[in-house]
Amino acid sequence: MELEGLGAYLRSRRGRVTPADVGLRTYGTARRVPGLRREELAQLAGVSVGYYTRLEQGQAGTASPQVLGALANVLGLDPVETAHLHNLARQPATSRLVRPRPERPHPRVLSLLASLGDRTPAVVLGRRGDVLAWNRTGHALVAEHIDVEAPHDPARRPSIPRMFFLDSRTRDLHRNWTELARIHVAYLRLTAGRHPTDARLAELIGELAMHSRDFARLWAGGDVADCTVGTMHLRHPTVGDVSVDYQVWLQPESPDHRLEVYTPDDAASADALHLLSHHVAGQQEPGAVRGEAAPGPDR
């Protein structure tokens, strides 16, 4: 699947801005487009209609930061959406997809994960949402139906996006699946803008769009968001209903890798996590981490 370009993103964002949003009067005339017309957006951004049209058609080459800033302002983009716009603008008109080598977590990331022990569930995720490592409680919390050893083998690594949209047990696990699904898709789009030549990422998005109507619908919406904090409401098969806050620790030495840590959202959930840690205790040595280390981050 071909990843999104600048023109497609501009069209999708233009379609969600009404004339009233930017102070334009329509005088009751019928409009053929749901959002702003090209000429309206161009005028408000201070560029010619011809130049903006070429931008949408991928024929204008690169756009200056000033032009992109003006477009982002008119379109009402937030900082993450604006960063995505700039990422797309930096892409060459034609680029060849490249199949990157399998990701491996940096040893320091694994050391940080091990330092959390088993009382605090945690997972290390790669750029495409593959599980690169997890502690025993992290595994038991988010994917206890999957082999705990799977992150060792790049060919078998659990993919959180695939699980979320193609695995019924993962869907049933999340009581706020609809909210989290939107975030997952928006973050994948952000990642696609950062890594436009990643063939594995393009294949993942294509697979999900083909096999999940929910994913295809959300992807067509064009939303972009980062995924750093939030709450998961789970109906866990072992400990029952539990709500956890997740927060992401970004890794300076491997910026594409994210250590996602889960903490209880309330007292009852704290008790549930305590029970879960006891449930997995005794299976192997305390603080064990399942994942494969590498001498350094992959590019």
From TrEMBL:
Region (Disordered): 280-299
Pfam families attached to this UniProt entry: HTH_31, MLTR_LBD
Coiled coil: none
GO molecular function, one term: DNA binding
Record-linked PROSITE patterns: HTH_CROC1 (PS50943)
Residue stretches making up the HTH cro/C1-type domain: 35-82
Superkingdom per UniProt: Bacteria
Gene3D superfamilies registered for this protein in UniProt: 3.30.450.180, lambda repressor-like DNA-binding domains
Identification of the protein by name: XRE family transcriptional regulator
Organism: Wenjunlia vitaminophila (Streptomyces vitaminophilus)
